[in-house]
Write a structure and sequence with these properties.
Elements (H helix, E strand, L loop, with lengths): L1 H19 L17 E4 L2 E5 L4 E4 L2 E3 L4 E5 L3 E4 L5 H9 L23 H15 L8 H8 L16 H13 L29 E13 L5 E14 L3 E5 L19 E2 L3 E3 L3 H14 L2
Parallel strand pairs: 3-7, 7-10
Antiparallel strand pairs: 1-6, 2-5, 3-4, 6-11, 7-8, 8-9
Helix pairs in contact: 1-6
């Protein structure tokens, strides 16, 4: 009996291993939908200036630039979620209706979407496909954007207080070129070097990252002062922050300088380590023996 249970455990672990390396049949896409094109990004290092406000000795400073690593492969939707894809979520009663969504518009990004609505879509799509799709973190978005990532405009030595900081940011934002107001068809802004389309185009994309404020201590450690997860980071032509319920960055929100004209999103899916998943399966199964 003992041997039989071990054999069952070994078979289950082998099955888990095949699943971990992508040898199981793909999950089914939502009804009426085709699977979106996906770019798989491999682990690697990249230059990244963290989001949020930083201060040191009572003075506002730029966030310290640092080398950051994507530790595991990441699947990124090549294009933002389309109007037609979002409409299918509405039809399933899983997403709120939006003013201007054409169910036939497979080639136009859905815009006028809040973080709450983008999250609702991600949860619906993950449930329908059986895969862990979600909004990216700011770091993941930056990695996917590659040479197109700008982050927040540098502020330099902008003064002793946050009022002067926002004035400096206004000047920097105002110098950026405004983008087309109408959302453009997929491919209009081309691919970056990692094969992801329309990043830093005319759609600002929601991330899961919360607004933060940190103090840089004498030893270089960035101590967290405030985290507000009712305000999320948006990435596009530059980084900005917006309250999670806002659909229209021009009419409302907390953008300084040129506000985001179109709020949209795309989803990502992290790859679990095949070894970690296999060992986790071994532990769970042998614990039951």
């Amino acid at each position: 009996m003992r041997f039989s249970r071990l054999a069952i455990a070994a078979a289950a672990v082998a099955t888990a291993s095949l699943a971990a390396i992508g040898m199981t049949p793909p999950a089914t896409a939502p009804s009426g939908a085709s699977r979106p094109a996906v770019a798989t990004l491999q682990p690697g290092w990249f230059a990244y200036r963290p989001l949020g406000d930083y201060e040191s000795n009572g003075r506002v400073i730029d966030a310290p630039a640092r080398a950051t690593r994507l530790d595991a492969p990441l699947d990124v939707m090549v294009e933002p979620v389309s109007q037609a894809e979002y409409a299918r979520c509405v039809a399933a009663a899983a997403c709120p209706k939006l003013k201007s969504v054409d169910p036939a518009a497979e080639n136009l990004p859905v815009v006028g979407v809040s973080w709450l609505e983008a999250t609702a879509y991600a949860e619906w799509y993950a449930a329908k496909t059986g895969e862990d799709w979600r909004l990216p973190t700011d770091e993941e978005w930056a990695y996917a954007a590659a040479e197109r990532f700008r982050g927040e405009p540098p502020r330099g030595a902008s003064g002793d207080d946050f009022a002067r900081r926002w004035l400096a940011k206004f000047d920097a934002d105002s110098a950026l070129a405004r983008q087309p107001k109408a959302p453009q068809p997929f491919g209009h802004f081309g691919l970056d070097t990692l094969g992801v389309a329309d990043l830093a185009g005319n759609v600002w994309e929601w991330t899961n990252s919360c607004y933060e404020r940190r103090s840089v201590e004498a030893g270089g450690e960035a101590r967290l002062l405030t985290r507000n997860c009712q305000v999320r980071a948006l990435e596009g032509e530059h980084r900005t922050f917006m309250s999670d319920f806002i659909r229209d960055g021009v009419a409302g929100g907390c953008s300084v300088g040129p506000p985001p004209t179109n709020l949209g999103f795309r989803l990502v899916r992290a790859h679990a380590s095949a070894v970690a998943r296999m060992l986790g399966g071994v532990g769970a199964l042998f614990a039951a023996l």
